Inverse folding.
């Protein structure tokens, strides 16, 4: 998920909601998908899961492309 930098001061829910409204829905969808794919990559260990892992990596790259267009700091890295 998109995490705000820790400021040491609690951020009210209304402010978080306001910030979330500034991000387009397709970017939020890409972030959720990238997070799921990064988790799936960590599950695909061993040679018999090679094809599934490669598919997840390709899908993760596609989702990261959408995230990077909005803000390069949102890129999700998969566990290798």
């Amino acid at each position: 998920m998109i995490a705000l930098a820790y400021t040491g001061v609690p951020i009210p829910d209304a402010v978080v909601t306001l910030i979330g409204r500034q991000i387009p829905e397709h970017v939020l969808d890409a972030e959720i998908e990238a997070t799921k794919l990064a988790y799936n990559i960590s599950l695909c260990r061993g040679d018999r899961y090679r094809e599934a892992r490669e598919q997840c990596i390709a899908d993760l790259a596609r989702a990261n492309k959408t995230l990077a267009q909005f803000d390069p700091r949102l890129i999700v890295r998969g566990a290798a």
Residues 38 and 78 are 4 Å apart (CA to CA). The mean pLDDT is 87. Helices lie at 13-21, 25-43, 50-70.
